[in-house]
Design a protein that fits this description.
The protein has two helices and four strands; from the N terminus they run βββαβα. The protein has 76 residues and is α+β, with helices and mostly antiparallel strands. It has a domain of 48 residues. Strands 1, 2, 3 and 4 form a four-stranded mixed β-sheet that branches. It is elongated and about 40 Å long.
Length: 76
């Protein structure tokens, strides 16, 4: 697989996903990702992206200033 941004080689890694939603920062740790060896761009499979959307939607319901979620625990 190649990077959408620079066409570099992607490698599988676990990364952290961070998003600021309505004054709440949501951090999801240990997310399965593909990271470009050349430019560092991170991408996600369709299933992981859908799961991240679901996690963020649930986190928005708690309305805290910072929420940290372990992806592996969430999908297990």
């Amino acid at each position: 697989m190649t990077c959408f941004m620079c066409k570099g080689t992607l490698e599988d890694r676990q990364t952290s996903f961070l998003i600021d939603v309505e004054n709440c920062i949501v951090i999801v740790k240990n997310v399965p990702s593909q990271v470009c060896k050349q430019c560092g761009e991170t991408s996600y499979s369709d299933s992981v992206a859908a799961e991240l959307e679901r996690i963020v939607a649930e986190a928005r319901k708690t309305i805290t200033e910072v929420t940290i979620i372990n992806y592996e625990s969430w999908v297990a």
